[in-house]
Amino acid sequence: MELAFIHKVAEWTGTTTDVSEALTEATLSTLTQRISGGEAADLADRVPDELRPYLTKGQEYPEVFPYGEFVRRVGESTGVDLATAEAGIVAVLRALRDVVGYKEFMDTLAQLPDDLASLAAGGTSRR
């Protein structure tokens, strides 16, 4: 997987590279479920090749679920506690912003629940 991306996530979460890789995969996959197929494709066009499979979506319509469910899915997928899952989501989304650029990142955030968008943009948890 894209090492610079994973190392950023590891540094920001204080986790190992293996955990950071799992958090990245789970966060991007869950994000893809939550956004439209068009937005997922836009993101996939702007990330390193190794991350693209996690941003591939078979349908256009997003699956609507709240912030808590997003965190639960990432935690369950990675086997980490909810606090670590939340920290991982924030780190992955911030690393994603650095890779895809501000405008594309804001287009993605516009499709997320306000509490998750706020957290990704630098706000605080509302769990």
From TrEMBL:
Domain of life (superkingdom): Bacteria
Gene3D superfamilies (UniProt xref): Uncharacterized conserved protein DUF2267
InterPro entries to which the protein is assigned, alphabetical: DUF2267, DUF2267_sf
Protein name, entry field: DUF2267 domain-containing protein
Organism: Phytohabitans maris
